[in-house]
Amino acid sequence: MTEPAAANNGRVPRASLRVLLLGGHGRLGSAIAARLGPLSRAPADGRVELSAPTRRELALDPTAPAEAATHWFARWRPDVVVNCIALTDVDRCEREPALATQLNAALPAALARAAAVNGARLIHFSTDYVFDGALRRPYREDDAPNPLSVYGATKLDGDHAIADAGCRHWIFRISWLYGAPRRNVSAMLLERAGADRKIRLANDRLGVPNPVQLVAREVADCIAREAANAGLDALPPSGLYHLSARGATSWHDFGVAFVREAIRAGQLAAAQAPHLEGFAENALARPAKRPLYSALDPSRYEQAFGRTMPGWEQAIALAL
Ligand SMILES: NC(=O)c1ccc[n+]([C@@H]2O[C@H](COP(=O)([O-])OP(=O)(O)OC[C@H]3O[C@@H](n4cnc5c(N)ncnc54)[C@H](OP(=O)(O)O)[C@@H]3O)[C@@H](O)[C@H]2O)c1
């Protein structure tokens, strides 16, 4: 894997690139903020000025996304907006479809329109839940989506709205995040060890677990390129890219591999390792349907951005 691009092939960079990170205190957003910090301390070539406002500073009224986008662009004057705001609780999206539509579709649409007006780039995140899982091989960008849930449908509407707005954009479709300090499978595997030793993980769904550190590293690389090539055409084209580790597994098999690697890395004592049990999640009565297969194929991303994505087992090291 290559490191963030620093060279600009002799082109003239702008003094610094203003990056506005929205949702910078969530699971993925925090990892991106941590990764962009060093770029903001870089020398003039490729320097990044990062703003990661809190939810309070953003003061978003979800019913008025256009006003919010206009206000944020006026206040922070970003060259690049990285949008991690979303309603990600898939069951809550079924119960609150209006809020899901506002945050997952209307807000990205408003950001894209404001980015087009202001000549900025929008980096946004889509989801594997736009697919129904019927294909049973890693999904490519041109495979037909068919969301099974309000979450998947509203996220897909957001993708379409960004593509229609005409701004410079990269939509990164990602899947099954872990590696954040809270509210995800790896945190649970590390935290609960030694207390309640039994953890049940689904074994009937296949997808790709991705550490937030991997996605953040790739986003930082994109922003470093943007900083080094600002205003020029040497960047991968706008569009939708599947940004994912390779392979496919269940949460249960991931858990077994993660615990093994955590012990090897000294993050977990073998005697305190949780006992993992597989179960059929599909049998649970839950508001939102999840696709039984949703692995993503990163080939288009690798080709366009000149990157090589690791297998999901290899990627675990990035979270430890
Ligand atoms: N998690 C996954 O497994 C997964 C899988 C595929 C795709 N994705 C996509 O990846 C992106 C990031 O996901 P994530 O897991 O990092 O999400 P997350 O942890 O739920 O973070 C969402 C962010 O949105 C902010 N937010 C929500 N409602 C808001 C409101 N009304 N006003 C202002 N901010 C608001 C949250 O603020 P607070 O911090 O204040 O709560 C948080 O910072 C999303 O686009 C998601 O659809 C995630």
In short:
By secondary structure, this protein is of the alpha/beta class.
Word description of this protein:
This protein has 320 residues and is α/β, with parallel strands linked by helices. The chain has a domain at 17-178 and 212-246 and 289-311: NAD(P)-binding Rossmann-like Domain (Rossmann fold). It is built from 11 helices and 10 strands. Strand 4, helix 6 (150-165) and strand 5 (168-174) form a beta-alpha-beta unit. Helix 1 (27-40) packs across helix 8 (212-229) and helix 7 (185-191) packs across helix 9. The protein starts with 16 loop residues before the first strand and ends in a 5-residue tail after the last helix. It binds NADP nicotinamide-adenine-dinucleotide phosphate (NAP). Residues 23, 25-29, 55, 58, 60, 62, 84-86, 88, 103, 125, 127, 155, 174-177 line the site of NADP nicotinamide-adenine-dinucleotide phosphate.
List the helices and strands and how they pair.
Blueprint: E1 17-22, H1 27-40, E2 48-51, H2 55-58, H3 65-76, E3 80-83, H4 90-95, H5 97-118, E4 121-127, H6 150-165, E5 168-174, E6 177-178, H7 185-191, E7 198-202, E8 210-211, H8 212-229, E9 239-242, H9 251-264, E10 275-279, H10 299-305, H11 312-315
Parallel strand pairs: 1-2, 1-3, 3-4, 4-5, 5-9, 6-8, 7-10
